[in-house]
From TrEMBL:
This is Uncharacterized protein. It comes from the Eukaryota. Residues 55-117 are annotated as: Disordered. Residues 55-92, 103-117 have a biased composition (Basic and acidic residues). The lineage of its organism: Eukaryota, Sar, Stramenopiles, Ochrophyta, Bacillariophyta.
Length: 117
């Protein structure tokens, strides 16, 4: 058996508690630092991810606008072609009617001239 004089045990217990406190404080300090570093890493990674998603969204919208513009331009061009074709057909019909009218006038004039002669 070991016997301590009066107060020695309390002194040893106090030193042990102080040693444990400093070790616990060190462990807590390291754990808190690790947690904060993880949170900061996640924060930076999250910001980078949000920026990446924003860039992708902007690029997607830009491509959609370009495709929409190209589609609308093709539709306008097709409508112009269709309108031009209709105009040319109407013009052709009017010319044909004018030629028929001119031919009718020539025939009428030649018939009148034949009757007079």
């Amino acid at each position: 058996k070991t016997f301590f004089r009066a107060g020695a045990m309390e002194y040893l217990e106090a030193n042990r508690a102080t040693g444990l406190d400093s070790q616990a404080t060190t462990i807590q300090k390291l754990a808190r630092g690790y947690i904060i570093r993880q949170q900061f890493r996640d924060l930076v990674h999250g910001a980078a991810e949000r920026e990446k998603l924003a860039r992708e969204e902007a690029e997607r919208k830009k491509k959609e606008r370009a495709a929409k513009f190209a589609r609308e331009k093709a539709e306008r061009d097709e409508a112009r072609k269709s309108d031009k074709k209709k105009y040319e057909e109407k013009l052709k019909n009017v010319r044909q009617q004018m030629e028929e009218a001119d031919e009718y006038k020539r025939q009428s004039l030649s018939e009148i001239a034949d009757r007079k002669a």
